[in-house]
Specification:
By secondary structure, the protein is α/β, with parallel strands linked by helices. The protein has a single domain, classed as Rossmann fold (3-Layer(aba) Sandwich). 55% of the residues lie in helices and 14% in strands. It is built from 10 helices and 9 strands. Helix 1 packs parallel to helix 2 (35-46). The radius of gyration is 18 Å and the shape is globular. The termini are far apart.
Length: 266
């Protein structure tokens, strides 16, 4: 029986992936900060289990808090197997111009999105290496492969995740541990709903062109990509087209993006 550990597992993409693996008969371990949401997520996953021996566990923890994380990881190791799949979905976002964003705001995004994900991966990887199997999957963003207005901090964090994951994939291949990065466009999640209350008009305009995906579409692409051990997983047709254009025609793509920004700024 597989064991799947998911950070940011109480809502959004993380929770939807948890539901999918619950249906497949895996043990599920959810990590997030909000205990009430975790309790609800556990109930949802338990309602989907395919056999009575599955374990659905949840731990309230801030992945960026080293002491909390160390204690939680130790507890997880005593209650379930070493993770077969580690999904790193915990993250925060803010739509702010570079010049307007505080040092504290920038650091908070980098700390959670990069350092937090690194800390969780680092905590579980020695066991994956020892058993010479497993998969680590970072939930990045289309904003982690295509820079977007108002996302100097968010894109910096998500680009960093892609770079870190790429190096890890090379380093861990000899141990049969796969590393993947999911880079979706905007997804209909509670985090995005909260962001929409204060998003910059230029950011909103650009994201609207990319379209809004449902979590289920991201989950489907993620599970398919992990099954094939793909590195970069880009869910959604428009996102795939944008990613291709940005790679093949970078100058033209950049000029079009700048035109959209000027239009949205009027």
């Amino acid at each position: 029986m597989k064991t799947v550990v998911i950070t940011g597992g109480s809502s959004g993409i993380g929770l939807d992936i948890a539901r999918a693996y619950s249906k497949q008969g895996a043990n599920i371990v959810l990590l997030a900060r909000n205990q009430a949401r975790l309790d609800s997520a556990v109930a949802e996953c338990k309602a989907l289990v395919s056999n009575a021996s599955q374990k659905i566990l949840a731990f309230s923890v801030d992945v960026a808090n080293k002491d909390q994380l160390t204690q939680t990881v130790a507890t997880i190791k005593t209650q379930v197997n070493v993770p077969d799949i580690l999904i790193l979905s915990a993250g925060i976002v803010a739509s702010e111009r570079f010049i307007d964003q505080s040092d504290e705001g920038f650091d908070a995004i980098m700390h959670t999105n990069v350092s937090g994900s690194r800390a969780v991966a680092r905590a579980f990887l020695p066991d994956m290496i020892s058993k010479r199997s497993g998969q680590v999957c970072f939930i990045s963003s289309l904003g982690g492969i295509i820079s977007t207005y108002g996302y100097s901090a968010y894109s910096a964090s998500k680009f960093a995740v892609v770079g870190m994951a790429g190096a890890m994939r090379q380093e861990l291949a000899e141990f049969n541990v796969g590393v993947s990065v999911v880079c979706p466009p905007e997804v209909d999640t509670p985090m995005v709903a909260t962001e929409s209350e204060h998003i910059l008009p230029q950011t909103r305009f650009i994201k609207d062109i990319g379209g809004l995906l449902q979590p289920s579409a991201v989950t489907k692409a993620t599970l398919k990509g992990l099954a094939k051990n793909r590195f970069i997983i880009v869910p959604g047709l428009m996102a795939k087209i944008s990613y291709w254009q940005a790679r093949v025609f970078p100058r033209t793509f950049g000029a079009v993006m700048q035109m959209m920004v000027r239009y949205a700024s009027k």
